[in-house]
Write a structure and sequence with these properties.
By secondary structure, this protein is an alpha+beta fold. It has one domain: Hypothetical Protein Pfu-838710-001, CATH 2.40.320.10. The protein has helices spanning 5-11, 30-36, 101-111, 154-170, 183-186, and strands spanning 18-26, 42-55, 61-67, 73-80, 87-96, 114-127, 130-137, 141-149. The protein has an eight-stranded antiparallel beta barrel with strand order 1-5-4-3-2-6-7-8. Strand 4 and strand 5 form a beta hairpin. The radius of gyration is 17 Å and the shape is globular.
Length: 187
């Protein structure tokens, strides 16, 4: 048990709808990563130009994610430790319907100050339940990120961490390239 009182909130996941295992690494070349992706059981979800507007909040991170060419958006609140290894991310996601996006964003901008806007082109692949994100982030460069929705069950957690570890090894991602911070902190 941790002594951090805020972390105790994470143990009772009633505040959060999603518990995600996450690992992010800076990479010099996305082409090399693409070539090493597993050929079998790999699903390509697509390529998306995402604009994440991060807002100043007292704790955690809050962002409005918009995708160019799409009329919907997501408001994402998440808390996680800033550490350069596989970590838990505790998130709540509100999907904003297309008819409400413009007025919802306008309301947020009236209430909250913007921390930073992060623009990226993200390729999304799915392999054995793991989302693989190949990100080209404006002003920062190239990253690969693994996300896997999980539970707190220790038996499942170990298997899921192993899946991410195998992918990291298969893609030859060096642990020295792991990134501890959010893109919003790096810009």
């Amino acid at each position: 048990m941790t002594s951090n009182p805020r972390m105790k909130l994470f143990n009772s996941n009633s505040r959060f709808l999603h518990i995600i295992l996450e690992l992010k690494a800076r990479v010099p070349d996305l082409t090399r990563i693409r070539q090493k992706l597993p050929e079998r059981n790999l699903e390509k979800r697509g390529i998306f130009h995402q604009i994440d507007t991060y807002f100043q909040v007292p704790k955690g991170r809050l962002k409005l994610r918009e995708i160019k060419g799409k009329t919907k958006a997501e408001l994402i609140y998440y808390e996680r430790k800033d550490t350069a290894k596989v970590k838990h991310c505790y998130a709540s996601i509100l999907r904003v319907p297309p008819t409400a996006c413009a007025s919802f964003k306008k309301l947020l901008l009236q209430i909250l100050d913007i921390k930073v806007v992060v623009e990226k082109v993200r390729e999304i692949y799915i392999y054995e339940g793991v989302e693989i994100h190949l990100d080209n982030v404006q002003g920062l460069g190239s990253f690969v990120e693994f996300e896997l929705e999980t539970s707190q069950d220790p038996k499942q957690l170990g298997k899921q961490q192993l899946r991410i570890k195998r992918l990291k090894e298969q893609l030859e991602i060096n642990s020295h390239s792991f990134e501890r911070f959010s893109y919003s902190d790096l810009i």
